[in-house]
Inverse folding.
């Protein structure tokens, strides 16, 4: 049996030049949550020694506010033979020349994929011209640029796509719905594009271990997870100890095997009026996960059912 391969994210600073109303991690110019440099170096040192870790993602906040530091981290990671990705809002694309200069630095450091987060929520802080400059400059660079857009009921970002025009040729664009996490909890509820729960929403779309700037480690990169108690431990703990908790966690184990339907049915049997028992529409599987695991009273109530599940699973093995 092959060893598991881990994708790991490091959200090392919450500071950002923008103050977006949808920000799932509440980043802003005056945000202060961060992991100090020595601790980040320690985390990276650990990850570089782990054969199971194949990719490390750097995010924030806005990581390129501290451009030199971010370049140093990228170079260290790629020099060790690991893949690295980075998420940015593109504030630095002031001109096409400036955009090319930064992309050149990223390329030289070894970065091969850059995600631009840009949409109607970002637009008050970053002009579409800056994003266009980056997209145009990327044609002469080996850094693959993709565009992620967070959308809501009234903010579909279509006008921005028109403004970007043919600079988007060959660029992967992904739209995803805003979820009620972080600053987005303050949005009007009508902004969330909820749909009836379908079979596909009953399963976790994937895991990525996240070292977060609040000092905790989470088992996935979904914004909703930061509003739950589903943590693996603290960022200064041994990496293999942390991922061992992913593999041994009774709740996560059932989620991987059975999906969210098992939890909904179990909670309905002990707490039929709770949010997890009565939910019928969600933005995404990630919001459903958050609704379930944010309800600590219901989770505690189904502990005997969780224990019984694993007794039966071991007996059947």
């Amino acid at each position: 049996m092959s060893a598991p391969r881990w994708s790991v994210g490091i959200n090392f600073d919450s500071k950002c030049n923008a103050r977006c109303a949808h920000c799932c991690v509440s980043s802003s110019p005056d945000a202060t949550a961060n992991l100090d440099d020595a601790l980040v170096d320690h985390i990276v040192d650990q990850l570089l020694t782990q054969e199971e870790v194949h990719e490390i993602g750097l995010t924030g906040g806005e990581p390129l506010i501290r451009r030199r530091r971010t370049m140093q981290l990228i170079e260290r990671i790629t020099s060790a033979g690991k893949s690295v990705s980075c998420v940015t809002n593109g504030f630095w694309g002031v001109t096409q020349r400036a955009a090319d200069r930064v992309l050149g630095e990223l390329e030289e450091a070894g970065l091969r994929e850059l995600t631009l987060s840009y949409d109607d929520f970002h637009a008050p802080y970053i002009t579409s011209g800056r994003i266009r400059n980056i997209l145009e400059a990327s044609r002469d660079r080996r850094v693959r640029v993709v565009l992620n857009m967070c959308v809501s009921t009234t903010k579909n970002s279509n006008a921005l796509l028109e403004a970007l025009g043919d600079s988007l040729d060959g660029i992967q664009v992904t739209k995803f719905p805003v979820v009620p996490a972080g600053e987005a909890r303050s949005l009007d509820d009508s902004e969330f594009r909820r749909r009836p729960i379908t079979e596909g929403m009953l399963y976790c779309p994937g895991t990525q271990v996240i070292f977060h700037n609040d000092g905790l480690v989470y088992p996935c990169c979904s914004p909703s997870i930061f509003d739950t108690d589903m943590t693996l431990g603290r960022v200064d703990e041994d990496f293999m100890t942390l991922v061992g908790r992913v593999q041994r966690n009774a709740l996560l184990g059932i989620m991987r095997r059975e999906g969210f339907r098992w939890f909904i049915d179990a909670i309905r049997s002990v707490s039929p009026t709770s949010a997890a028992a009565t939910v019928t529409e969600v933005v995404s599987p990630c919001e459903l996960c958050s609704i379930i695991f944010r309800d600590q009273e219901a989770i505690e109530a189904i502990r005997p059912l969780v224990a019984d599940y694993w007794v039966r699973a071991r007996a059947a093995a």
Observations:
- The mean pLDDT is 93.
